[in-house]
Amino acid sequence: MSKSCCTAISVSDLRALALDVGDKTIGVALSDELGITARGLFTLERVSEKKDTGKILDLVSEHNCGVVVVGLPINLNGTDSVQTQKVRQFAARLENKLRSNGKADVSVTLHDERFTTKIAEQVLIEADVSRKKRKEVIDKQAAVVILQSYLRAQALF
Question: 13 pLDDT exceeds 80?
Fold first, then answer.
């Protein structure tokens, strides 16, 4: 009788980082190690593309991320807007920054973010967050919605 050996299925401990990129701020969210849940980290005030991508590079290293999910603001009819092009450009520069800093194995993925701000706002309203406080955390919450959407889509495959 031959010995059989079973290999345990290992779950990757790499996390996903999600970004809701705007002109003035970037909402940031992080998944758990299992890729099931998302939580908001903070809203990053934009300084310059170099400093912004540097901060994201630091977060990728600090949290052992395998993917950065960037929300892509596509128009409702599926076409690109001016902001769509800005976000694509930001994602490309972030990918270059990761690659040039020894993080070529970290992928940068664009994910449709239509309705995420609306959903995020509704979540905050239902949680009885004041209008002033909602304004402070809306981008972070939108990043959570983007990441949850991405994680659900990945679970289907």
Answer: no
